[in-house]
Amino acid sequence: MNAGLNSMHMETISRYLMLGGIILFLVGGGLYLSAKLGLPLGRLPGDIRIEGENGSFYFPITSSILVSVVLTIVVNLVLRLMKK
């Protein structure tokens, strides 16, 4: 009985790993397409860039918000389609 329980956990872990891989693949593909289409992610108005003599600081706040909104919409659509 213990072996069956262990294999069930391994199936669950493997499913999560495959789902994570698919998500990483889709995010990478989206970033690749945005670069090919010339979308200025990381260079939008509102992204903070400070350059000094000894170093630089960069915080893409506008790009982060845009990606967050798009991913929220996509995840909500996927979850609604899975419930039906």
Question: Could you give a quick summary of the protein structure above?
Answer:
By secondary structure, the protein is mainly alpha-helical.
Query: How many domain regions?
Result: 2
Q: Reading side by side through the largest sheet, how are the strands ordered?
A: 1-2
How far apart the termini lie comes to 35 Å
Class inferred from helices and paired strands: mainly alpha
Query: What amount of the residues lies in strands?
Result: 5-15%
The amount of helix comes to 55-70%
In round numbers, the mean pLDDT is 85
What's the number of helices?
Answer: 2
Categorize the overall geometry. Answer: elongated
Strands, total number: 2
Give the SSE string.
HEEH
Q: Please tell me how large the radius of gyration is.
A: 20 Å
Q: Give the biggest beta sheet.
A: 2 strands, antiparallel
User: Which spans have pLDDT < 50 for at least 5 consecutive residues?
Assistant: none
